[in-house]
């Protein structure tokens, strides 16, 4: 992939750039999905949310040894008040953040590491994030082997069309509400917390039920389930950071997975891809 590369997401051009082998995606372009004329305003609204700041702060703690935690604590304490506002420039200057940056010129705008960009896309629209993730994956596959690229976006989605057009399959894909016994059960692996929330079983339980299947429980997941799983990974990290117990996190993640799967399966955009 070149330094700057454009992908097409639901008719919107989204620029991707690479810095030190990490991919950064234009938040300015993503914001245009919600309002093409007020992208800066949309981005500022997202950044003034306390949950957004907690996620950004956690990402910086994990990836940036020079992150200014003292300034971050001050910002977090102000979040939620009516007078509070936050811009990318202020965030970068006050916390020495590296997950977001702004630049001018032909490929200008506000960019963010893909982890953060996908989080922003979720806030904009779960459906839009699905298309963004798929197009980004296509770009990465093209980067790995441009001479053998045979993957096609429309063809890939056609494989799941039958699954998203019948109520019976929708009911099968949407996660079940966990019972109190399942919620209280302690799982050794954090990955199985996500598996339980989304699939209703652990990786070992799935293997027991499917001894002849190749791969694992996540290899058999639908595109929609993988998008929700990606969302839950970042949400779970934030919940752990906030000190929430495992049982509380499992209950909340299960509720989130049900809500997001329902939203994705009802997305009008997917219904049109026949």
TrEMBL record:
What are the KilA-N domain coordinates in residue numbering? 3-139
Q: Which UniProt keywords apply?
A: DNA-binding
One Gene Ontology term of the molecular function aspect: DNA binding
Coiled coil stretches, renumbered:
none
Q: Which Pfam families match?
A: KilA-N
Record's protein name: DNA-binding protein
To which species is this protein native? Rhodonellum psychrophilum GCM71 = DSM 17998
